[in-house]
């Protein structure tokens, strides 16, 4: 159907379906009664280009299409905001319009049922909202979501397409009652209905009092099969996108910018420890199953926050997190969250991981914060799962920072690269369950693997790794810790630090085996410094220092392989020191307690 072009005086509202014809309307006039009458008669109503006024909300019947000439051409203004309602009807299309409110909020509402009336619901199917611009940029007391899709009662809403839409400024001024630019949801206490099969594509949501987009449900009514693509979410007081118990969600090729920053639209305690601070994120995922791919998170208070207890968890692919003022992520939950090919960068904390299982593959981390990644599982009673794996990842620091602040059950690192850190791990807390395994990884210009304070390490294993220009492998005051350092290549940095490259106290067992070590121009007096405290009431299981090859060039001291101090022979069950070679300086086992010599086999 051809739309008659608008002129300065009048144009035509075009009707088709049960009633064909055209109704003259004037630019700038109130068309409320005319439009309601036309909708009651026709399956399709087309508005011309121009600016028109509505004084009250309208409801569209089953099978209706309301179409303007484009969101930049057909403008519907209202003094206090109006609603275009799709209530208990199906097969409805709304497109090509701008809703502009001068003193309130305007909204497109799609509902199955009304609040607290389960008998009112009817199935809602096949809804298209396309090329719509809702401009709610007015600081008023209205509390309406911009685009609102809600299953209130016992019927589902299915097959909703929201395309090429823009919503701006759905905030309101009621304290702690900000609203969303777009809301899609259902709750079981209001009935048994849910929302399923929703597509949100090529949309722009900006300046929201709460979230730019909420996908919300509860229990059996959680939204299902949600597809969000090519969208921009920016300048929200809380989240860019909030997933609350949603399942089978895919978010792709989206931009999240400045979320959690615009707190002037929401009375929010800005203390980063506030209970609401975690909602100030590009993406918030609570008990949701989602796949997020090719998305960018920039300057969000948090890049994203996850409190996820779904079995399937979250999957991030090729996403970029950068320049978060607090941290790129705060992750917690029982399910497995996986990251593939993601990049984390910025001047602040890159990630905070708590109480869950996390897998990072082919990810890149770079930053200048004192601690780049916080891996904290809390006390034993609070933690259910705590495992973080880093496979084929790359970490870049500034030579003054520490990579991991660590108190977690397990960290596995494999085939990864580390460059320019003062230390890799700083342990904290009082937890004997923590375990670290590092395999087939490379370290360059790293001061130390770390310092482990008492009762923070159950086991540390470093196997088949390359260290270039490292000053110290680790220092430990750990009680009950088991340590293994095997099949590694180490080039000790040139420095004046006379401390050992490995220093352990009060350990359970120690294995240093088949390593190749090169020492150049240092003051080191020993490579390995081991001791046990006479007050420790358990025996050391064993010491193995075998098959190591040491090449010492221009060492300023008298380098020794091993310094061992055991004040009580009962503290050492067995020891084995054999087949070690030291070239370039006097070969020596070093200072050892006489009482334990008979316990050690030396070759």
The largest β sheet comes out as: 58 strands, mixed
Strand content is over 45%
Total DSSP helices:
1
* Radius of gyration from CA coordinates: 32 Å
Q: First CA to last CA: what distance?
A: 97 Å
Class of secondary structure makeup: mainly beta
Structure report:
The longest helix has 10 residues, at 32-41. This protein is mostly beta strands and 603 residues long. Mean pLDDT is 83; it is low at 1-8, 270-275 and 378-383. It has one helix and 58 strands. The protein has a 58-stranded mixed beta sheet that branches.
What are the SSEs and their pairings?
Blueprint: E1 10-16, E2 21-26, H1 32-41, E3 44-46, E4 50-53, E5 58-59, E6 65-67, E7 74-78, E8 83-87, E9 92-101, E10 107-112, E11 124-135, E12 147-151, E13 157-163, E14 166-168, E15 182-186, E16 195-201, E17 204-208, E18 213-216, E19 224-229, E20 232-236, E21 241-244, E22 247-252, E23 255-257, E24 281-286, E25 290-293, E26 296-298, E27 302-308, E28 314-317, E29 320-322, E30 327-333, E31 336-340, E32 343-346, E33 351-354, E34 357-361, E35 364-367, E36 371-376, E37 387-391, E38 394-396, E39 402-407, E40 410-414, E41 417-427, E42 435-439, E43 442-452, E44 459-463, E45 466-470, E46 472-476, E47 481-486, E48 489-492, E49 502-505, E50 507-513, E51 516-520, E52 526-531, E53 542-546, E54 549-553, E55 560-565, E56 575-578, E57 581-583, E58 600-602
Parallel strand pairs: 3-6, 4-7, 5-8, 6-9, 7-9, 8-10, 9-11, 10-12, 11-13, 11-14, 12-15, 13-16, 14-17, 15-18, 16-19, 17-20, 18-21, 19-22, 20-23, 21-24, 22-25, 23-26, 24-27, 25-28, 26-29, 27-30, 28-31, 29-32, 30-33, 31-34, 32-35, 33-36, 34-37, 35-38, 36-39, 37-40, 38-41, 39-41, 40-42, 41-43, ...
Antiparallel strand pairs: 1-2, 1-3
């Amino acid at each position: 159907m051809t739309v008659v072009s608008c002129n300065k005086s009048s144009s035509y509202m075009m009707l088709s379906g049960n009633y064909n014809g055209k109704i003259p309307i004037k630019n700038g006039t109130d068309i409320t009664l005319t439009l309601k009458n036309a909708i009651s008669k026709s399956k399709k109503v087309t508005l011309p280009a121009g600016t028109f006024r509505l004084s009250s909300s309208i409801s569209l019947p089953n099978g209706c299409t309301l179409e303007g000439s484009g969101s930049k051409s057909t403008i519907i203004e209202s003094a206090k905001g109006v609603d275009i309602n799709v209530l208990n009807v199906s097969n409805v299309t709304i497109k090509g319009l701008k809703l502009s409110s001068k003193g309130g909020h305007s909204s497109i509402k799609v509902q199955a049922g009304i609040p607290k009336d389960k008998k009112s619901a009817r199935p809602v199917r096949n809804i298209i909202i396309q090329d719509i611009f809702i401009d709610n940029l007015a600081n008023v007391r209205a509390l309406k979501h911009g685009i609102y899709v809600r299953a209130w009662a016992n019927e589902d809403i299915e097959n909703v397409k929201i395309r090429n839409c823009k919503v701006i400024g759905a905030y309101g001024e009621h304290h702690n009652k900000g609203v969303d630019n777009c809301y899609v949801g259902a709750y079981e206490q209001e009935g048994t209905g849910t929302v399923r099969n929703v597509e949100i594509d090529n949309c722009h949501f900006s300046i929201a009092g709460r979230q730019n987009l909420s996908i919300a449900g509860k229990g059996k009514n959680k939204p299902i099969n949600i597809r969000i693509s090519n969208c921009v979410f920016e300048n929200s007081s809380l989240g860019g996108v909030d997933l609350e118990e949603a399942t089978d969600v895919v978010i792709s090729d989206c931009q999240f910018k400045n979320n959690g920053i615009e707190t002037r639209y929401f009375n929010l305690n800005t203390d980063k420890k506030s209970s609401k601070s975690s909602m100030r994120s590009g993406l918030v995922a609570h008990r949701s199953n989602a796949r997020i791919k090719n998305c960018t998170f920039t300057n969000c208070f948090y890049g994203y926050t996850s409190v996820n207890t779904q079995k399937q968890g979250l999957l991030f692919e090729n996403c970029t997190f950068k320049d978060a003022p607090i941290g790129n992520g705060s992750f917690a939950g029982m399910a497995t969250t996986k990251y593939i090919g993601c990049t984390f960068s910025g001047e602040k904390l890159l990630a905070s991981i708590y109480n869950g299982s996390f897998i990072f593959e082919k990810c890149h981390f770079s930053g200048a914060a004192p601690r780049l990644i916080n891996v904290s599982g809390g006390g034993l009673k609070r933690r259910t799962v705590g495992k973080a794996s880093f496979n084929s990842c790359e970490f870049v620091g500034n030579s003054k920072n520490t990579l991991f602040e660590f108190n977690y059950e397990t960290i596995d690192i494999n085939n990864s690269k580390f460059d320019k850190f003062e230390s890799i791990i700083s342990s904290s807390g009082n937890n004997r369950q923590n375990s670290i395994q590092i395999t087939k990884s490379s370290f360059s210009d790293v001061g130390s693997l770390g310092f482990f304070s008492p009762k923070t390490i159950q086991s540390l294993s470093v196997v088949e790794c390359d260290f270039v220009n490292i000053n110290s492998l680790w220092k430990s005051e750990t009680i009950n810790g088991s340590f293994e350092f095997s099949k590694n290549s180490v080039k000790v940095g040139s420095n004046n630090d006379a401390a050992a490259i490995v220093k352990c106290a009060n350990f359970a067992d120690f294995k240093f085996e088949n390593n190749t070590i090169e020492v150049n121009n240092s003051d080191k007096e020993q490579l390995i410094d081991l001791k046990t405290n006479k007050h420790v009431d358990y025996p050391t299981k064993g010491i193995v220092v075998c098959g190591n090859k040491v090449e010492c060039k221009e060492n300023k001291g008298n380098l020794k392989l091993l310094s061992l101090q055991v004040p009580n022979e009962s503290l050492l069950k067995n020891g084995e020191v054999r087949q070690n070679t030291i070239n370039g300086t006097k070969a020596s086992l070093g200072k050892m307690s006489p009482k334990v010599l008979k316990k050690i086999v030396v070759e």
